[in-house]
Write a structure and sequence with these properties.
The chain is of the alpha+beta class. 25% of the residues lie in helices and 26% in strands. It has three domains: 184 residues, Neutral Protease, domain 2; 192 residues, Zincin-like, CATH 3.30.2010; 168 residues, no CATH class. The strands form seven sheets. A seven-stranded mixed sheet has the order 4-7-2-1-13-17-15.
Length: 739
């Protein structure tokens, strides 16, 4: 024994030395070397540290929408607060409108293949055969004394040079005057803003976003986040207060981020009265602008202008929509800590479905998301109807989905409602829990889709919602082209980003909540993450650490496999052996008469195909004294035999074919028709990541054994999940056959 002990120590020491030279990357190793290290800014628990800081930018903007020429022109004053410990000699400002220039470095990248039979619109995406003006014209940049400031533009980023460094703890005020041509949204792939023209009544709906030069993020993990905007990776932005004056044609209705400050100047007395009524209406929307009034507006084409003024506190962006076509409804939503106005804006082309469903969907999103994270803190939540898009901004979202001739299929309506819920949900992720969309799209899309799907499951149970089965086709794909979730936003294949950045993180969080951690513990941890990082800038490490910290659960194995690899789940139930134990030594022959004894040696690795040969028999010997070592107490050998008398012992062998470790759920179907489920934690794979054996004691005889009967873990091949073995198509094969 002593020799064996020291031999084990020697072997462990050698393996430890080898691991120093060649780090072991087992599935249960910590992910510390794969995520950013904790420091005084971000703690090892996943919370912001005592020294955490972030920058801030306040905006005062005046903007004019020129409907005749489809242009935006504006003047903004930015007050930038340097809360970092660093002195800054220059600032980076985002100019997203420059992505629409023909010379932009991302031009044509999204769809860059020529093929026979292309549509003219596809060819326009690729070549811009018909060119049009786009991008910013910067008229001036001036400091607070009116002196010109030097700048350099690199595609969608502008570097503003400072005459004297902006010291740590100081602030800087400067002004920018600019303009740009508003682009036709139908001419761009992944267009998040612009205008939509309605030829039938010669009117336009304007979705104005990414419209003003905005401060880039400067943070503790990478300094300036000044990656170029290439459409797929979205935005990283600082929080601040906004005071915005929007001048539009007099007959336009404006939906905007923020609170309207001058209703008496832009709304009729009747509209103001309706708005007062809506603030007390908790059961149904009140029409602020009716269909009749909107249709009358469509005919006016006023050349006069009026200015709408909005203010917003502690938001990271600002957007608005403007049109004379808008109908407008509003309803109050009571949350535990405040009351929010849910509002929808839509043209008559959205009737009747938008009037029936949009504001209701906002209400459902506000209630479920608030329960899952924190109460929605802003005064309004707005849904604007448009074509072929779902895009979010603080307090306002642009959402596609329109009936045709007033009708919508159930699937189309579900898609429309799902889009509204999803985009309203983005107010939490990333508009408040402000992750870096430019770098980690999955942190906003995945977390948001997780609560979005929970909202659909709870409030729209007749609609299909995402489950682990949803991700099987993707995870069964070609590993030569699949990429892990932890891929930066612009580096994902366009064909995969929906599955990899939306669905796979969603399914992963569903697994943690429903099957690995448990709902109560997980929900508290997820809420902890949201509250720790609201109005701050979390990184993936902050999420991973918080979920472990708040659940007392080692989840590194899950994060490593699900987020950092392209492994998939495929657990094979390779064998089930059935045993019975002799009750006592003196009646062995009597026992044998009642048990159909197998002829093969029980020590072999022979694989049975069913239970037809009956159980193997085991003779239990008394434990010899020397097996106890120095212990003086002894087992009651006869009591052990009696406890197992007449019981069925099943040794289950499970192989990890797909590479991704998961808990193991086993369903037992007994010969009397009853059933039972056991679950083994993922820890069973710690000592052997490729194959595990586990013994179960059952009173009844088993007819069938199944793995993952409720499809909790996205197993890509259910054909090898049962014993006795049967020939069945894999889940993925079944999916393909239905296509």
């Amino acid at each position: 024994m002593r020799y064996l002990f020291f031999a084990c120590i020697a072997i462990f020491s050698l393996s430890h030395i080898n691991s120093q030279n060649q780090p072991w990357q087992g599935k249960f190793e910590p992910i510390d070397n794969m995520i950013t290290a904790p420091n005084s800014y971000r703690t090892a628990s996943g919370a912001p540290g005592k020294a955490y800081w972030q920058q801030r930018a306040d905006y005062n903007i005046k903007v004019v929408l020129d409907e005749t020429n489809n242009t935006i022109s504006g003047h903004e004053t930015i007050t930038y607060y340097n809360n970092s410990p660093d002195d800054l000699s220059y600032l980076w400002i985002q100019l997203e409108q420059n992505v629409n220039k023909k010379g932009s470095e991302d031009f044509g990248n999204m769809k860059n293949s020529l093929k026979d039979g292309m549509t003219t619109r596809q060819m326009q995406f690729l070549t811009r055969a018909i060119d049009f003006p786009a991008g910013y014209s910067i008229k001036y940049i001036k400091d607070s004394d009116g002196n010109a400031m030097k700048s350099l533009v690199n595609n969608t980023m502008m570097k503003v040079l400072l005459n004297t460094p902006l010291k740590s703890g100081d602030s800087l005020t400067f002004s920018i005057s600019w303009s740009y041509p508003i682009t036709d949204r139908s001419l761009f792939l992944l267009s998040r803003e612009g205008y939509e023209y309605f030829p039938e009544d010669d009117n336009t709906v304007y979705l104005i976003a990414h419209w003003f030069p905005r401060m880039a993020v400067y943070n503790d993990t990478e300094g300036w986040q000044n990656q170029q905007f290439q459409r797929l990776g979205e935005f990283a932005l600082e929080f601040g207060d906004y005071d915005v004056e929007i001048t539009v044609p007099e007959d336009h209705i404006v939906a905007s981020t923020g609170s309207l400050q001058n209703p008496e100047s832009v709304l009729t007395k009747t509209q103001q009265e309706r708005m007062d009524k809506a603030r007390q209406s908790f059961d149904q929307p009140v029409m602020i602008v009716t269909q009749k009034e909107a249709e009358a507006n469509e005919k006016t084409k006023s050349k006069k202008q009026k200015t709408w003024r909005f203010t917003a506190k502690n938001v990271r962006d600002f957007a608005f929509a403007s049109s004379r076509k808008f109908m407008w409804d509003a309803q109050a939503v009571k949350l535990p800590s405040n009351t929010v106005m849910a509002m929808s804006f839509y043209p008559k082309e959205g009737l009747p479905v938008w009037q029936e469903e949009s504001t209701k969907a906002i209400m459902h999103a506000l209630e479920v998301y608030s329960e899952a994270t924190f109460d929605y803190p802003y005064p309004v939540a707005i849904s604007v109807n448009t074509s072929n898009i779902g895009m979010e901004f603080p307090m306002i979202s642009f959402n596609g989905g329109r009936p045709k001739n007033g009708k919508m299929s159930k699937n189309a309506k579900a898609g429309m409602i799902g889009t509204i819920v999803h985009e309203v949900g983005h107010n939490w992720f990333p508009m408040i829990v402000s992750s870096d969309e430019r770098k980690w799209m999955w942190m906003d899309e995945g977390l948001n889709t997780f609560i979005h799907q929970r909202t659909i499951a709870e409030r729209y149970p007749d609609f299909n919602s995402t489950t682990p089965k949803s991700i099987v086709p993707f995870m069964s794909g070609d590993k030569n082209i699949l990429r892990p979730i932890m891929t930066t936003s612009d580096n994902e294949l366009l064909s995969q980003f929906g599955a990899n950045f939306y669905l796979k993180p969603t399914v992963g969080l569903q697994m943690l909540r429903n099957s690995i951690v448990g709902k109560e513990l997980f929900d508290a941890a997820f809420k902890e993450y949201a509250n720790r990082w609201k109005y701050k800038h979390p990184n993936p490490a902050d999420l991973f650490r918080t979920l472990e910290d708040a659940t007392a659960t080692d989840l590194d194995w899950f994060f490593r496999g699900w987020f950092f690899t392209t492994d998939h789940v495929d657990m094979e139930l390779s064998n089930v052996k059935w045993f019975k134990v002799y009750e006592e030594a003196q009646n062995i022959e009597n026992q044998k008469q009642n048990i159909q004894v197998k002829t093969e040696d029980t020590s072999t690795n022979a694989t049975a195909h069913d239970f037809s040969s009956g159980p193997e028999v085991i003779k239990m010997k008394d434990t010899p004294d020397n097996a106890y070592g120095g212990f003086l107490s002894r087992l009651d050998d006869e009591a052990v035999r009696q406890q197992l008398s007449g019981k069925n012992l099943y040794e289950v062998t499970i192989k990890n074919v797909g590479g991704l470790v998961m808990p193991v759920t086993i369903e037992w179907i007994y010969t009397d028709g009853s059933s039972e489920i056991n679950q083994l934690p993922a820890d069973i794979w710690r000592r052997n990541e490729y194959e595990v054996k586990h013994t179960f004691v059952k009173d009844k005889e088993v007819k069938t054994v199944n793995l993952d009967p409720n499809f909790e873990f996205a197993d890509t091949n259910t054909g090898n999940n049962s014993f006795p073995k049967k020939e069945t198509a894999s889940e993925f094969d079944s999916f393909k056959n239905k296509q």
